[in-house]
Write a structure and sequence with these properties.
Blueprint: E1 38-43, H1 58-64, E2 72-74, E3 81-83, E4 86-91, E5 97-102, H2 116-127, H3 140-146, E6 162-169, E7 172-177, H4 198-204, E8 210-212, E9 215-217, E10 234-240, E11 245-250, E12 263-268, H5 272-280, E13 286-288, H6 295-300, E14 312-318, H7 329-338, H8 341-348, E15 354-355, H9 378-387, E16 394-401, H10 411-424, E17 428-435, H11 436-445, E18 451-457, H12 467-471, H13 483-493, H14 498-515, E19 518-523, E20 528-530, E21 534-535, E22 551-552
Parallel strand pairs: 1-12, 1-13, 16-17, 16-18
Antiparallel strand pairs: 2-3, 4-5, 5-7, 6-7, 8-9, 10-11, 11-12, 13-20, 14-18, 14-19, 15-19, 21-22
Helix pairs in contact: 7-9, 13-14
């Protein structure tokens, strides 16, 4: 994130290794995969919502990104910020006022026109959320980027940084914040802050989310097609939950280049081997998160297997409010020493995976070489638990089912390795498997699990997008308060000078790893696979593929 467009996020270098293929013929795949009119992609999990503002997971965003667009986007295949619905933008010197120059002639799927007032209606809609919408599990990204709401209902909710939005003229919205933030302008590129039509917003406001913790009921409009309306190259036309499929149709009034296929289908196939078999059998045209052991096999069979750049982190999280023993630093240190991270890298990740020392990969500015490290040492882990009076420590360990993630290709296998490591140190582990969306995501975001597995693929290239995501203030997922860490993150967030901000991130990383709120496990370069008969989209280190780029050969 940078102060003005001329100092926008620096792109990370990402070499995309693409397997050379022998071109197949679309007519050879006329079965369920649909010839050249329908492209079917095997997803690892169902989306949690058709409204991206209510989501925080990549499987949801993979679907909604094809239908919704944000003010700013990322260049294809990279991390450089470029124009989205706004052709250009600039900020005031103090970073508190952001002016966007919208594209003219952009139409929503329901026929309404994109205007500055429509943009402001979206931001004001999120700012005025109440009730269940204020829970972090529901409004995660709004709270991460802009803090709280017009009327906060919990003392744990941050004060709002969003000040307001005005339409300077028909195509010039101006968004104001109270203080400069390292989250901007990168935050304006988030799929969770993509723009919806004013008509759909009016419909959203008639429905409520209910529940709390791991029992949240999402509003009906977000669970079936027909109400949500964006500006993207596809529009969502059906969510067949019985057959685990979301169907999108090409939007012929799209402002940019039209999609290369008429129909796009995301079919949930939760098990990785089943996704590979579906690709090999011609039932789908692509799937993500290829198992490392399958890459060469697929390439030898003329499938395309491009590899993304490393831009993620996988971690074992601790919830101190769920288990009081985790409030003891010696216990957190013990659990960290107990985990054999290198074994996980060697047995579970593709070539290029690395054991992590902190909560960001070394491709992000702010990575520090001076953090406290915790070598794999079962004896030391046992000794630390004894020192803390927790020789009989018992923990509930949550892990997700029916999903694979870029940072976590085999959740159950990775869980079993860590469970065995912890048991060797004398810890009693109770497994808590949960379906990824919404059960697992809601449970982890609300801090209901003693231990849990999660990770992060960066949204944009700034250190705050990693460590600021979790450690800028109290977060239910972690359940701790540490003013030294929070103050360090606040200083970094509001620092306009890039070099000074990077140094502040390095210091914050050192404080975090001394406190050890969880265990950063690894970073890895995820692979994605496509059949030989398609021209695939350019792959993104941010996992932000645009499937409108797909065509059949």
């Amino acid at each position: 994130m940078r102060r003005t467009r001329s100092r926008v996020v620096q792109a990370i270098s990402a070499t995309l290794a693409v397997g050379l293929i022998t071109a197949g013929c679309a007519s050879e795949r006329d079965g369920e995969a649909g010839g050249g009119d329908t492209f079917i992609f095997g997803a690892a999990a169902d989306p949690g919502s058709l409204d991206p503002a209510l989501a925080s997971d990549g499987e949801t965003f993979r679907v909604t990104r094809q239908a919704f667009e944000a003010l700013i986007e990322h260049e294809p295949g990279g991390t450089e910020l470029v124009g989205g619905l706004a052709e250009s933008w600039e900020s005031s010197e103090d970073g508190t006022q952001w002016t966007f120059h919208l594209r003219d002639g952009v139409t929503f799927h329901d026929g309404e026109k994109l205007t500055a007032e429509a943009v402001c209606a979206n931001y004001d809609h999120w700012f005025n959320w109440k009730g269940t919408y204020q829970q972090k599990a529901v409004s995660y990204y709004w709270q991460t980027i802009f803090g709280g709401f017009a009327e906060n209902e919990s003392e744990n909710t941050a004060e709002p940084n969003y000040k307001g939005c005005t339409a300077k003229d028909e195509l010039t919205p101006v968004i104001e914040v109270h203080e400069a933030s390292a989250n901007l302008p990168g935050g304006f590129s988030l799929q969770a802050l993509a723009i919806h039509s004013p008509k759909s917003l009016e419909a959203y406001q008639k429905e409520e989310a209910t529940g709390e913790g791991d029992a949240i009921n999402y509003p009906k409009y977000s669970q079936e097609a027909g109400t949500v309306a964006g500006t993207g190259p596809f529009e969502i036309t059906e969510w067949d939950k019985g057959n685990d499929e979301v169907t999108l149709k090409r939007f012929d009034d799209y402002w940019g280049e039209k999609a290369g296929v008429e129909t796009l289908v995301f079919r949930t196939i939760s098990e990785e081997n089943a996704r590979r078999q579906a690709l090999e059998g011609g039932d789908i045209h692509g799937y993500d998160l290829v198992a490392p052991s399958d890459v060469k096999t697929l390439e030898d069979k003329n499938f395309q297997v491009p590899v993304r750049g490393v831009f993620n982190i996988f971690y074992l999280g601790f919830s101190q409010e769920a288990n009081a023993a985790l409030e003891k630093k010696e216990v957190r240190q013990a659990l960290t020493h107990a985990i054999d991270r290198q074994n996980i890298v060697d047995t579970q990740l593709p070539e290029g995976g690395v054991a992590a020392t902190q909560f960001m990969p070394d491709t992000v500015d702010g990575y520090s070489k001076d953090v406290a490290t915790y070598a794999y040492d079962t004896d030391k882990a046992t000794s630390l638990l004894a020192d803390a009076g927790e020789e009989n420590l018992a923990v509930d360990f949550c892990y997700p089912t029916e999903v694979t993630r870029p940072y976590m290709p085999a959740p159950a296998d990775m869980f079993e390795l860590m469970k065995a490591d912890l048991e060797r140190a004398g810890v009693t582990v109770t497994p808590k498997p949960m379906k990824w969306a919404p059960d697992y995501l809601d449970a982890t975001e609300s801090g209901s699990c003693d231990l849990h597995l999660l990770g992060w693929t960066g949204d944009f290239n700034d250190g705050y997008n990693f460590i600021g995501t979790w450690f800028s203030g109290y977060d239910e997922q972690w359940g701790f308060r540490n003013d030294e860490i929070f103050d360090a993150m606040k200083a970094a967030e509001s620092e306009p000078d890039v070099a000074q901000r990077t140094a502040l991130y390095q210091k914050a990383n050192e404080l975090i790893m001394d406190y050890v709120p969880g265990v950063p496990i690894s970073s890895s370069p995820p692979s994605i696979a496509f059949s030989a008969d398609v021209n695939p989209p350019e792959v993104s280190p941010l996992t932000q593929e645009n499937f409108a780029e797909v065509t059949f050969k």
